[in-house]
Design brief:
alpha/beta; 3 domains; six-stranded mixed β-sheet; about 35% helix; globular; disordered N terminus
Amino acid sequence: MEHPALDSRPESTVSGKVQSAKSTGLRTEQAPICIVSDDFRFSYDVSKRFLELKLRFYQAEDDSGIPKGTAIVVKKGQPGLVVADRRFIVYGDAEECSTKAWLIHSGLVSWRLGTVIGVDPGERPGIAVYSGGERIAVTSATSPEDVSRYTRVLSSMVGASRVLVRIGNGDPTNRNRIIRSVWSTCSSVEVVDEKSTSRIAGSDGEAAAIIARTSGVTLTKLPELSPTDGEIRNIQRRSRLNSGGLTTISRSFAKSVATGEYTLDEAIRKQQSADKKRKSE
């Protein structure tokens, strides 16, 4: 079954066997991807992510259904990445498989080059991936902590020693949340002065691309999370807006949102529950 754009076993990694798309004879940016699984939940989760990434893909219950010309096959199983029958075969859970397949499809097929991830900090950080100085992909994470999904997968593909994270120095609390989440999944983290990065790009992803190409100051220790009074007040203001003016969360809940302990919606529900309990006493 084709979807247009909009077996569990350990495998050896492809590292050291494949150096580039040219060496495999594959053009991964054009060939489709095929999800091979009879597990509905796995197929659904991978499909949903591929649709979000606007990737063209097929689905099959077993290898006999893989379309001719497929360059990337995704299967549920022990995390691994191999090349067989002139195809990349990605194993793992839905999150890891979809991210690896997206990166390979975007052109990340050299495992011996240094990889740089540029991050434009925010509630939904912009991300840009460069390999060997070449831009591979641009996207957005769903939260500051979600950035670690990309660094973790990249480190599993190329090795943590080859992954450098560069992050803009704006939005300090979200920036520090990102840094703390990626700290153990890369070789080092650099903080880039965003004054030297033009915002003419017009999107967080494009800003992240500029950050990725700009050298920064290497961090030597984890930053602390210390939300400012202004950030806390802004989160309280947003809680009123999101609840239609019915609820203003406490400073304590607002701080928990700022540090990533709760989402804003979770904090609103907890505040409403606490208010209801207090009224009933």
